[in-house]
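hi! just following up on the protien thing from before. the input was this:
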Amino acid sequence: MLDVAGHAPLRAPARAALLEALDQGWADPRRLFAEGRRARLLLDGAREALAASLGARPDEVDLLPTHTLALHGAVRSVARGRRRAGTDVVVSAVERAAVHHAAAFVATRDGGRVRTVAVDEFGRVDPAELVAAAGPGTALAVLQHANGEVGTRQPVDDVHAALRAAGVPLLVDVGASAGHVDVGRAGDVMVADAGDWGGPPLGVVVTRTGVRRSPDWPEDDDRWSPGGVHVPVALAAAVALQEAVARRDAADAHRRALVDVVRRRVAAEVPDVQVVGDPVDRLPHVVTFSCLYVDGEAIVDRLDRVGFGVGSGSACTSSTLEPSHVLAAMGVLTQGNVRLSLHPDVDAADVHRFCDELPRAVADVRAALGA
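and the predicted 3d structure came back as:
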């Protein structure tokens, strides 16, 4: 498996924590009997561990069942909390589909508009352009820490500093970055994805003190995550992130070197191919390339038959295999897109074997299509 974006295999320590917590933390953490109090202690411990790993305070951390729900809820609640200041939402053209959908929802609800900022050929925004777009009437701006499809990192710190001076909050999607690189204190609101760092599905929202949020959903005991989250899942997510952070430097070196191999060999050995994304300032584990005269679904199927699970189409809507909105925004080739997102323990031999097999696979698909 060479594409584990958003749904990585559960890390061994996280699996052990999950199984233990199924026995010890099964109860409702809101109950006052002994089992409920024990579950509450485990949930509080998970929140504290997540906060420590993400550079936050425990009271700044909210947990939701999925990353998509976390993104939707964060965009909606910050925009509603800021509706007196403005109703527009600024996003980059390469944000996840969930962000674009949430921004469109907010604009329709509040009578504002979505201001979309273009990117360069690497998929990176110009900080000055994004800040200029966040003028009067802006409720919030959203910018990913790095793109999970092409790996390019964004100038988050520069954008955040400028927006802070302008009084506009910045929501940063660290779903593709957390656990893989140091995200620092990114933005005013930060949304992370436990499934991407080797935990079970869980969305994590960090809201810095001073940011105004207002929910637009029915009242619940858990204001930000109605119904709460499953305690064993939260604990496993926290353990997985601790493990990812502890091994981050070694995993970076291992995977960065293999991505360099893929980028170099694909460009040299496959005719009519374009390797995309920043070759240097990028995530260590993500690489994408596009092959002319090749259908994305066909190349995914051909590679799967020889033992390689890869992605294609838009990373956030991969089940549709539609042309990637990220690649389209970059102005690069969208046809025959192949995406790799490498697991920390990926076998180097598997990556080299993939590079050996790829030219034949592309040639076979082109021949079948008469290209």
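Residues 248-368 form a domain with the Aspartate Aminotransferase, domain 1 fold (CATH 3.90.1150.10).
The chain has a mean pLDDT of 94.
cheers
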